Every structure is written in structure tokens, then in C-alpha cells.
Amino acid sequence: MEQAAAYLRISQDRTGLQAGIQRQREDCLVHAAKLTFAEPQVFVDNDVSAFDGGRRPGYDALAAQVRAGVTHIIVWHVDRLYRQPRELEDLIDLVEQHPVRIEAVRGGGFDLNTTEGRLMARQLVAIAAYESGHKSDRVKRANKRLAEQGRWHGPARYGYGPGGVLIPEQAAVIRQMADRFLAGQSLRSITAWLNRSGIPPLRAGTGTSGLWHPYTVRSVLASARISGQRAYAPDTRADPAGGREILGPGDWEPIITPEETAQIRTILADPARRRATPARPTLLGGIARCGKCGAGLTITGKLSPTADTRRYTCQKDPSRPERGGLSINATHLNDYITERVLYRLSHPRTGTDGVSTSGLLRQVAEINIRIGQLEDDYQDAVITRREHRSGVEAASEALRDAERRLVTADGAIALYTAPIGNRQALETWWDALEVIDRRAVITTLIARLRIAPGRPGRSFDRSRVRITYHP
């Protein structure tokens, strides 16, 4: 008894992917009906390249059905079934033992069991292979030209939207990931921190597990993209341990400095994966940015028993003449930003939306005040012990919920323990935090920190510091 199976393949061009699959399916089923095959089995290879020789699970399943007795294969076009001469020869070997006829919606049918059918198939596949190779060469040349020009390429990546537009919330997470790695944390510990904090990866909710994995963290940290640089490796399907080759600066805003990317890559490429002296992140390095060019400021100078010459500086870059020439006293800036952060935590702005950072901070402060009032009322015998216990339990549950949402929304797990609204307790809490966690708190509260140019020789000028807080 004759049996038919339909095979569909869509290439890596993602534009209209599902629509393309649906059109092919409909056309193949209509063609099958014309050939009196009512319900053929359908095998699909979705988003599989027609030229790179990768595995095709759908095709492998189809081949198994041919061995089981399928006599007709229906395809939209023969180049969906095979695109390379080696694929055709493998198919010919198969049909020598299991006769099968190819029926194409576009181009008609032919029989691989005949000499004429094989000649036609070999001619078609030779043309298809030439077209694929020629197209591949053109694409590679175009991509290399874009890379040399420092242009953004490809879809959105973590930290950036389409076209390389910075996403501040994700950029803050990358900044923390880099800090933790350079401070000596492993990829596994950073992965655990991300998942524990409830920070979603790029494609969470689209059929993925919604979790981070060590290889994903490594890919993000090793990428030249996050330091505003353009990498290019056309023949590399998987990222090497140390990242792809960097050609030069890109035309998008960096999240970390090129120097930090070089440090990260050196660690990742080291077979021993050990550092004798892990780098210690500065409080505002990479967070504070140049008000002229937007580059992240890095620390220069040193602290000694007799002098403190540390400054946050916009480093010169020969490939970017607009950079360099701006600096600010590091100690004074650290102290000023610390003061602003503690003030904001002790005096959260009014907000009742329960979603924004300000609204959640205000809720935490108000609940803490409510718990204090319940304690006073109980001591003054205004309420009973039962009323006190019930009120404290309800307030504590509301407090835990607000704190969980605050951490989930912003990714700064250190805020979970912050005594919001209590300035004295906040100072003690802040002093006990590691630098990494202080940076996480800062990026949770502050969306943008710009340092405007100043006159040489002047004392610390607060008006140069431009702070944009998260809502």
C-alpha cells in the first residue's frame, strides 16, 4: 500500500518563520490531496539552516518512515529536502533499498530510482549548492563590513534592545554580574544569585525554563558587546571560552569598560581558572559616566598613608577622539553618592503604585512605622495582646511581600535586609555591605549617573553630579 509523508524545512531567516511553516504545510497538504493521499505524516525542521550541514531531526524521522514503508515524499520544493550534494547522495543510498518518489509542490516530481530522476536531482542540487555558497559569501562580506564599521548586528541581546538600544534594568544586572566575576565569584555562584534573585533571562516565558545557566552567564560576560566593542567570527558557531575576536569599538553605549572585558576574557581563557588576587570593584567604576561622551569612568591614582590621589576618569581611547579629559575626585564622589542613597532609603518618595522602586520603598517604610505603632499601643494598653499579635503578623506578611517584590523588580537582593526609613540603622547596614552589594543597591535606585565637565583645580563641585533616579 502506498503511503506518503510531507517534509517541511525553514531556514535561519527568522522573518515570518511560523507563517512560512504554515504556508508550506497548507501547500503540501493540498498537493497530497491531489495525489489522493488524505492525511500524510508531516515532519518539520524549524529554523534549521539549509547550508551549514547541521542535524535535521525532522529529516531523520522522515528517513525512518521511509525504511518503514513510506513510498512518496511531498515537499514544497526539492531544495527543502536536500541542499547539498552529500545530502542527495545519502538519500539516493536510502532509496536504493527503499524505493520512494519525490513530489514537489513547486517543480514537479521525479523518481530517484531511475537514472533520469537521479540526473535531474543532481543537476538541481548542484545549482542549489552554488546559490547557497554564493549567497553565503555575500552575507559574510556584508557582515564583515558592518563589523569593521562598528555597526550593531543581529537581534536584541541581554542588556540591549533591537539596534543596540541600552536597556537600563538589564544593564544594571550585567554590571553586577561583571563585578561579582571580577571579585572572584564563579560562574555557578553568579548563576545561583541570578536565579535566587528572580531576575529573568532574556527569553523567559517563551518556552524556556526561565532560568539562568552557567554557559549563558559566560556568554554574556565574555561578549565584546557589553563593553561597546564589535566582535566578528563568521566561522564560529559556538563562542570560544575567551569570546570572539574584537575588531574595534561599536556604535552603541557600553555597560562595562573594555579593560574589564579584557580582564574577564583572560580569566575565562585560563585553563586553571584561578586568580591569585581577584580584582576588587570600586564603588562607582562603570556606573558613573562621562557627561561628554557617555563612557564609563574608571579609577586612577592610589590611596597611601600620606595621600589619596584616586579619581574617576574618562580614559583616552585613540580610536575615539571624543573620549578623555574628564575626571572627578573619587573619595568625594563616593561619599556624595552614598549620602544620596542613604537619604533616599531613609526618606522614600511618596508612591502607592506598589510596582515602582519608590512605591515599594515607601510601602516598606510605612509598614515599619505601623509595626512600631502597634508596639507602642500594646505597651500603653491601647490594644490587647491578641490584637497586637494579629496586627504584627499581618504587617509582617505585608512587609515580606513588599520586600520580595522590591528585590524581584530590581535585582538588588541586598535591599531585602535594608531597614528602610531608619537613617541610623541604614548607616550601620550600609557599612556592613560588601562593595558588590553597595553597587547593586546604587544601580537599583539610580538609573543614570553623569559627571559634567568641570574647571581644573576646583574643589569638589556637587553641581557636576547629575543623578537620574528610577521611578
Distance between the termini: 69 Å
Q: How much strand content do the residues show?
A: 5-15%
Overall strand count? 13
Helix content: 40-55%
Mean pLDDT: 77
User: Which series of helices and strands comes N to C?
Assistant: EHEHEHHEEHHHHEEHEEEEHHHHHEE
What strand line-up does the widest sheet have? 2-1-3-4-5
What is the structure about, briefly put?
This protein has 471 residues and is of the alpha/beta class. It has 14 helices and 13 strands.
Task: Show the helix and strand layout.
Blueprint: E1 4-9, H1 17-34, E2 41-45, H2 57-68, E3 72-75, H3 78-81, H4 85-97, E4 101-104, E5 108-111, H5 115-148, H6 168-182, H7 187-196, H8 214-222, E6 229-231, E7 246-249, H9 258-269, E8 288-290, E9 298-300, E10 311-313, E11 327-329, H10 330-346, H11 357-379, H12 385-410, H13 423-432, H14 435-445, E12 446-451, E13 465-469
Parallel strand pairs: 1-2, 1-3, 3-4, 8-12
Antiparallel strand pairs: 4-5, 6-7, 9-10, 10-11, 12-13
Helix pairs in contact: 6-14, 7-8, 10-13, 11-12
Describe this structure in words.
This protein has 471 residues and is of the alpha/beta class. It has helices spanning 17-34, 57-68, 78-81, 85-97, 115-148, 168-182, 187-196, 214-222, 258-269, 330-346, 357-379, 385-410, 423-432, 435-445; strands at 4-9, 41-45, 72-75, 101-104, 108-111, 229-231, 246-249, 288-290, 298-300, 311-313, 327-329, 446-451, 465-469. Helix 6 packs antiparallel against helix 14. The longest helix is centred in the N-terminal third of the chain and has 34 residues, at 115-148. It starts with a strand and ends with a strand. Mean pLDDT is 77; it is low at 12-16.
